[in-house]
Design a protein that fits this description.
The complex is a heterotrimer of chains A (295), B (325) and C (401). With 295 residues, chain A is mostly helical. In chain A, 68% of the residues lie in helices and 3% in strands. In chain A, a hairpin with a 2-residue loop joins strand 1 and strand 2. The longest helix of chain A is centred in the N-terminal third of the chain and has 32 residues. The radius of gyration of chain A is 19 Å and the shape is globular. Chain B has a two-stranded antiparallel sheet. With 325 residues, chain B is mainly α. In chain B, a hairpin with a 2-residue loop joins strand 1 and strand 2. Chain B contains 13 helices and two strands, in the order H-H-H-H-H-E-E-H-H-H-H-H-H-H-H. In chain B, 57% of the residues are buried. Chain C starts with a helix and ends in a 14-residue tail after the last helix. With 401 residues, chain C is of the alpha/beta class. In chain C, strand 4, helix 4 and strand 5 form a beta-alpha-beta unit. In chain C, helix 2 runs parallel beside helix 13, helix 5 runs parallel beside helix 6 and helix 8 packs across helix 10. The chains are: A mainly alpha (295), B mainly alpha (325), C alpha/beta (401). Chains in contact: A-B, A-C, B-C. Chains B and C meet through helix 1, helix 2, helix 11 and helix 13 of B and helix 1, strand 3, helix 3, helix 4 and helix 6 of C.
Chain lengths: 295, 325, 401
């Protein structure tokens, strides 16, 4: 069997594929964060909390309302999006002219409140959540068995990522959004309701996080603490990609998944830390991230 | 008002603090508050007076805590040398962080400091001498100038002395020409550059000073509590010190101290507060407050950012200005 | 002006700190309980532990040796500095006579130092570090429920004897993970088995698929999960997903019934777990657990049962001696055997280790489970002397060799 750096080739291929699977997931999570920063100039630290709420709502919908996974895949992001609009109207809109720090701190506060609330009702051990029956089982790819659900995660993530990218970069709606950020008064003068656009953008960004949460629920413990474990990694991905860049978030998410995957083979203890090493190196060489523009 | 000497006010404040045990206040709690107050003041030097937000200050607190702990326990160094060793390690680490991060600005500066502190945390996790999550335990208190630091009251006055010295250092720094340049950099960096100041050198110096003082806080904490653990260097501790400074008032001298008092009290006393409220009002729900530290901290964050952006002390100063007008 | 403002701030500081002052009472037996109530270990101990201790006090009718029993508790949030400072404060200003510590080894080690300094008994319930009865032992520490040595031996011995000769470890990159793996490896090799490899993952890893793939590649019969909490749950979920459970047996080295509840019987079915107690083990256990369930709406974990047992044992010692003086009570607790619905055994005089039987259990399939929380069948009993470190091997400086 051929070997590369002491690891048999099929095993290495398997790890790379798993890295891509994780990477597509990172890409989708970072996407929402990048959209919100790019459009609103807010560093949404609460992204992890919305991700958690997506997963918890999915569980709640299945447990209390008897809905199935597919229904929750659509419903949970909508509910979270609506919540996002409320939060944006009530809390965030006061901070747009201020330093980034305040948005970060406020959303961090929101995270703590959300976590505390869910934890007081549901404890920390998590809720059981099975893989939906239509996606159970695995496919033999020759060098490894890939669970069908993971393949679905990749598919859904990539479709959503490129969909959002195309929406923002290639359509007139996207152009309006981008214009609204750069010069809100002018765009408002054209008769566009800019505040509404901003609210909906925030809602869209957090809905993406909730969607990622529902995708994650069958494979990761659904608990109130699930967001805080992920948030600084996702953060780092967005920064590496360049803080307003949609494409940057997607590419970096995928890339980080692969890099982490390789680290898990050769130096597994460092797999949570490698993203920060990459971030430090990238920021020293390209100050605004890979695809970003310095503001 | 600027005619009256603020130093008199500070002297009175420290006098009261030094006498708190005589008033029946529990000294260990106040010592812990002072350590974090020092940590917050050090952080404030950077954010409040120089305008640089660091997300990695726990690295300096932690490295000094471990270094001092190791020096005092394993090498058996006398207390002043142990603490000095801790402070030096923090200063050196501050220099390294500073050299790497200074050229960036705003959120990118903050993210580099976060990345670097995560790497430092990983090092502590892997290094055998830290004891992993068990921590570096049983650090002896030893003696200082013949006085037995095992006595809580003696140690208390020593910690007050350390705190006063550090506070004085910060005060002198802020009110010196060096401090004026830092303020200028915070207010309008391009202008400062155009006036011919080597802005990066000033920022680096402020960063190293801030790191060293944060290290002093960490080393002192190890002395008081007798251990150093991973939670000293974890990123949420960096978050906690940002919160303390925000709640107390960025850019004020006393603000971070008040902020530290609020946050440390919250962590340690919320259960007691809950019981007190439950007994006073008869509403049993307050009993559950002890389990709600996260929730309450989050609400405080939100309230502070929306309503009390200048922090407790900052708002108090603004109120006084308004009443005068 | 500034002076007034500073003075006001200082007065507020005094008020704040003073609000939590209490009278030091000598006429009361006061028990202090510090545990994690809001973070990762909140379910296995936490407020359930508080309830269990309250039950123990109520069962003594709230009085011991003619004095009233008082109980205070707080959340240490898994921070050693909060735990240590709080413990100190309780001993110095609140007249706490006995400290009982919930989860987390770091906080337990810090609290043990404080209790030893103040000459007061400290009973550790949920921390796993065997250091508490070895390098860090004190005359005042009692390590009650379990430690990593007992867990490792309890799981490994019966499984190797039953034919599981080749092992692979998925280990949390933390001290407890390393000691679980090391202790288990020693037992495996002594019993004639082999460890084919191990992979260390960072705590709170996001995804386990990569590590599990490496485990699968090793071809071992048994996958030992030397991790805990969310990491264990995620490992089990991923192991099911990738079909690893078809070719390897899973052994949870540090698992509680709350984890099984969270991951579900379908995913955990067939797994081996070692624990000190199971609520459905004996009629006495069942009876106590139903009382607990009435209050908490979930079945107790072994730690919560241990909280009850430890406090009862302490109170009985105080009642017998008619004093709460630290040294005397410690001697009595070590002299008197423990025998209740939780376990039977005695606390070792030299190092404070409570030696009692451990149980290897297997997770039932959904069909075998007859009622909610009916998750385990007990497959083997490991006698205490085999499970815990023998006195001759102890690294405790107080043990005379």
């Amino acid at each position: 069997m051929a070997e590369l750096f002491g690891v048999p080739l099929p095993a290495l291929l398997g790890q790379l594929l798993l890295g891509l699977v994780n990477g597509s997931f990172y890409a989708m999570l970072s996407l929402g964060l990048a959209v919100i920063f790019g459009m609103l100039n807010i560093i949404n630290f609460a992204h992890g909390a919305f991700y958690m709420m997506g997963a918890m709502l999915a569980w709640m919908g299945m447990e209390y309302l008897g809905l199935n996974y597919w229904a929750m895949l659509l419903l949970a992001p909508l509910v979270v999006g609506a919540l996002g609009v409320v939060i944006e109207r009530l809390l965030l809109r006061w901070l747009y002219q201020l330093d980034h720090l305040y948005g970060l701190l406020l959303t961090f506060g929101i995270t703590l409140v959300a976590e505390g609330l869910f934890r007081s009702f549901y404890g920390v051990s998590g809720q059981p959540f099975d893989v939906p029956s239509q996606l159970a089982g695995a496919t033999n790819l020759g060098f490894m068995f890939l669970p069908n659900y993971r393949a679905w995660v990749v598919l859904a993530s990539l479709v959503v990522c490129f969909g959002v990218w195309a929406l923002i970069e290639k359509t007139s709606l996207g152009a309006l959004l981008r214009a609204g950020t750069e010069n809100p008064r002018l765009v408002q003068a054209f008769g566009i309701n800019v505040p509404l656009m901003v609210s909906l953008t925030y809602a869209g960004g957090v809905a993406l996080a909730a969607f990622a949460g529902v995708l994650a629920a069958p494979i990761i413990q659904v608990s109130p603490l699930m967001g805080s474990q992920l948030i600084i990694t996702v953060f780092a991905v967005v920064v590496i990609g360049g803080m307003g860049s949609i494409l940057g978030a997607i590419v970096t998410g995928l890339g980080l998944g692969v890099i982490e995957g390789l680290t898990k083979v050769f130096y597994p203890e460092a797999s949570n830390t490698v993203v920060f090493v990459v971030m430090a190196i990238v920021l020293l060489v390209r100050p605004a991230g890979l695809f970003g523009k310095e503001r | 008002m600027s005619k009256k000497n603020p130093l008199l006010g500070y002297a009175l404040m420290f006098g009261v603090i030094a006498l708190l045990p005589a008033l029946g206040v529990y000294p260990i709690f106040v010592m812990k508050v002072m350590c974090f107050a020092l940590f917050a003041c050090a952080f404030n030097l950077l954010i409040g007076f120089t305008g640089l937000l660091s997300f990695g200050h726990a690295a300096f607190f932690g490295v000094a805590a471990y270094a001092a702990g190791h020096a005092l326990k394993v090498w058996g160094l006398p207390v002043p040398l142990g603490i000095a060793f801790g402070v030096s390690c923090a200063a050196v680490l501050g220099l390294v962080f500073g050299l790497l991060a200074i050229r960036r600005a705003g959120i990118y500066f903050a993210m580099i400091t976060l990345a670097l502190s995560q790497m430092v945390f990983f090092f502590f996790l892997q290094a055998p001498f830290t004891g992993g999550e068990d921590g570096l335990q049983s650090v002896p208190r030893g003696h200082l100038l013949g006085l037995d630091l095992g006595n809580d009251l003696v140690l208390y006055e020593v910690v007050v002395a350390i705190f006063v010295a550090a506070f004085w250092l910060i005060y002198r720094t802020v009110h010196s020409p060096f401090g004026q340049v830092l303020t200028a950099i915070r207010e309008n960096e391009p202008r400062a550059i155009s006036l011919g100041y080597d802005v990066e050198r000033f920022k680096l110096l402020a960063f190293v000073l801030s790191a060293a003082l944060a290290g002093l806080a960490g080393a002192t904490k190890t002395l008081v509590l007798g251990f150093a653990t991973l939670s000293d260097a974890v990123w949420t501790t960096s978050g906690a010190v940002i919160l303390m400074t925000l709640v107390g008032g960025m850019g004020t001298m006393v603000g971070p101290m008040v902020g530290a008092l609020v946050i440390v009290s919250l962590e340690s006393k919320i259960g007691d507060l809950g019981s007190l409220l439950a007994n006073l009002t008869g509403i049993q729900w307050f009993q559950g407050l002890g389990e709600a530290v996260t929730l309450v901290t989050g609400l405080i964050f939100i309230l502070c950012v929306l309503l009390f952006r200048r922090g407790i002390v900052g708002e108090a100063i603004a109120l006084r200005e308004r009443l005068r007008a | 002006m500034k002076l007034k403002q500073i003075a006001l701030a200082t007065l507020a500081a005094c008020g704040f700190a003073g609000a939590a002052q209490a009278q030091i009472s000598g006429d009361v037996v006061k028990i202090g309980f510090l545990t994690d109530m809001s973070s990762v270990y909140a379910d296995i101990d936490g407020s359930g532990g508080v309830e269990a201790i309250k039950m123990a006090i109520a069962d003594m009718k709230g009085m011991v040796a003619g004095k009233k029993i008082e109980f205070i508790y707080a959340d240490h949030q898994n921070k050693a500095d909060v735990a240590s400072a709080k413990a100190r404060e309780w001993f110095d200003t609140q007249g706490v006579d006995m400290l009982i510590g919930g989860t987390n080894s770091g906080t337990a080690l810090a609290m043990a130092t404080v209790a030893a300094e103040k000459h007061k008994p400290f009973i550790v319930i949920g921390a796993g570090s065997a250091r508490l009865t070895n390098e860090a032992c004190t005359p005042y520490t009692v390590h009650y429920a379990y430690d990593t040595v007992a867990l490792a031996r309890g799981t490994v011995n019966p499984m190797v004897k039953a034919g599981g000769k080749s092992w692979y470890f998925l280990t949390a990159d933390y001290a407890f993970g390393a000691s679980l793996q090391a202790d288990a490896t020693e037992v495996i090799q002594k019993a004639g088995g082999k460890v084919l490899g191990a992979v260390k993952h960072p705590l709170n890893a996001n995804d386990f698929s990569s590590f599990l793939l490496q485990a699968q590649g090793s071809g071992a019969q048994i996958l030992g999960l030397a991790n805990a909490g969310g990491d264990t749950i995620n490992s089990i979920k991923a192991a099911n997903e990738f079909g690893i459970t078809k070719s390897m047996k899973l052994a949870g080295l540090l698992m509680f019934i709350n984890d099984v509840h969270s991951v579900g019987l379908k995913a955990a079915e067939g797994m081996y777990v070692t624990d000190s107690w199971y609520w459905n083990q004996t009629p006495e256990a069942r009876e106590w657990s139903r009382r607990f369930f009435d209050k908490m709406k979930r079945m107790p974990s072994s730690l919560q049962a241990a909280d009850y047992s430890a406090v009862t044992h302490y109170l009985q010692a105080v009642d017998k001696l008619k004093t709460d003086e630290g040294d005397k009570v410690m001697a009595q607790m070590k002299a008197a055997p423990v025998k209740d619905f939780y376990s039977a055994g005695s606390i070792r005089k030299e190092d404070g280790r409570f030696v009692h039987d451990m149980f290897l259990m297997q997770v039932k399939s959904p069909k075998e489970s007859t009622e909610p929380w009916d998750y385990y069948k007990v497959t083997a009993r490991i006698p205490g002397d085999d499970a815990f470190t023998k006195l001759a091997d102890s690294k405790c400086p107080l043990v005379k060799k």
